[in-house]
Specification:
By secondary structure, this protein is an alpha/beta fold. The protein folds into 2 domains: 143 residues, Nucleotidyltransferase, domain 5 (2-Layer Sandwich), CATH 3.30.420; 181 residues, Nucleotidyltransferase, domain 5 (2-Layer Sandwich). Helices cover 39% and strands 19% of the residues. The protein is built from 15 helices and 14 strands. Strands 5-4-3-2-1-6-8-7 form an 8-stranded mixed β-sheet. The protein has a 6-stranded mixed β-sheet with strand order 11-10-9-12-14-13, with helices on both faces. Helix 1 packs across helix 3, helix 7 packs across helix 8 and helix 11 packs across helix 13. It is globular and about 55 Å long.
């Protein structure tokens, strides 16, 4: 079975084509600047990169199908060889605790969740509708970032605000990056050959979140109602006193929307350092720029503090997992997070940490809990869920 995985953004569309029978990625790429001037980067039979006008996401899907079926760049003979399409959908609210086959009712439910993810769900819906237009009749599956965290207990997801806001407006903690946390926690259990693990997973990229996963189920996570809550990130502030918003509005004569824009796009390590939101730039300036050093120390301190809090929520930590761009590729930041965690039975092997490539155990042999690096593969999770649900729907 061949599965096309789609991750649609407001002006971009990432894709991967999986051959699930062989377990391989046949092609992948990204369409960028949709609705502006258009550009595509494709890796298939041969690499291809070019300016390509795309007025909307349907044009982008047509371009993708063309690249996948072209004699020069393609890997399939025709569109009929795509058996199903899997979509990353950011927010499913309380409506979805697992991946689902997309129909009209599911689309309406995703639309209902737009107020909870106004920047993400609309382009996800655009991607779904574009695929319907270009490939009618092909089964489509929605895989939600929030679904994995629907196992959190009430004590973890409720806010201490009037309960009416939760009942009427669904104001609660949802968490994101669920597909990534699910994948790496499952891989940790397989690598260690154990069940019933208490795992803290650190998804660290430009957006970062930490999750507590007990025996395969999410019991808490750092992100909340939106991806703004939690640890500081590339440009997001992470958790702050809500009164700061009103204070800035009054002192700087800003609207609530303007303050939220600052907290989402101009804060985090970018705001603290004044250098960059890219952690590689901060490391390069670490010795010479005090604010860059402050930003890195602030980030790793809050991740470490969150690791401890989530371990406490589970009553222990059998494994600590690092994933995503920073977690997979930055031994210095991993080392800063792990420094001082020996009281939890987690001891980093400095040499293994420096040389880690791919899936790696980087804790010392006598470390009571294991520390691992596991590259995330959200697209594979989407493809696997899509295959399972599409096959079930055709029986």
């Amino acid at each position: 079975m061949r599965i096309l995985v789609i991750n649609a953004g407001s002006s971009s569309l990432k894709y991967q084509l999986f051959d699930m029978d062989c377990g391989t990625v046949l092609a992948k790429g990204i369409c960028e600047r949709i609705g502006i001037d258009g550009r595509v980067k494709h890796q298939g039979k041969t690499p291809y990169e070019a300016e390509l006008p795309m007025g909307n996401h349907a044009d982008a899907i047509r371009a993708v199908v063309g690249l996948l079926t072209s004699p020069e760049t393609g890997v399939i003979a025709g569109m009929g060889e795509i058996d199903a399409i899997g979509h990353r959908v950011v927010h499913g609210g309380e409506l979805f605790s697992e991946s689902v086959l997309i129909d009209a009712a599911v689309i309406r439910a995703i639309e209902e969740c737009v107020p909870l993810a106004p920047l993400h769900n609309p382009p996800n819906l655009i991607g779904i509708r574009a695929c319907e237009e270009v490939m009618p009749g092909v089964p489509q599956v929605a895989v939600f970032d929030t679904a994995f965290h629907q196992t959190m207990p009430e004590r973890a997801y409720l806010y201490a605000v009037p309960y009416d806001y939760y009942e009427r407006l669904k104001v609660r903690r949802y968490g994101v990056h669920g597909t990534s946390h699910r994948y790496v926690s499952e891989r940790a259990a397989k690598i260690l050959g154990r069940t019933g693990l208490k795992v803290v997973t650190c998804h660290m990229g430009n957006g970062s979140s930490v999750a507590a996963v007990s025996d395969g189920a999410s019991v808490d996570t750092s992100m909340g109602f939106t991806p703004l809550e939690g640890v500081p990130m590339g440009t997001r502030s992470g958790s702050i006193d809500p009164a700061v918003i009103e204070y800035l509005m009054k002192r700087e004569n800003l609207s609530a929307a303007q303050v939220l824009d600052i907290l989402n796009k101009k804060s985090g390590v970018l705001g603290v350092s004044g250098v960059s939101s890219d952690f590689r730039d901060l490391l390069a300036a670490f010795e010479t720029n005090r604010r860059a050093r402050n930003a890195l120390e602030l980030f790793t301190y809050h991740v470490k503090k969150t690791v401890g809090a989530l371990a406490a929520a589970m009553g222990g930590c059998d494994a600590l997992v690092f994933t995503a761009g920073i977690g997979e590729n930055n031994p210095v930041i991993r080392g800063m997070v792990c420094s001082g965690l020996s009281f939890m039975g987690l001891t980093l092997d400095e040499e293994l940490n420096k040389t880690a490539k791919g899936e790696s155990v980087i804790s010392t042999p006598d470390s009571r809990g294991k520390i691992l690096v596991i590259p995330t593969n959200e697209e594979l999770v989407i493809a696997e869920d899509t295959r399972r649900i599409a096959e079930k729907s055709t029986r």
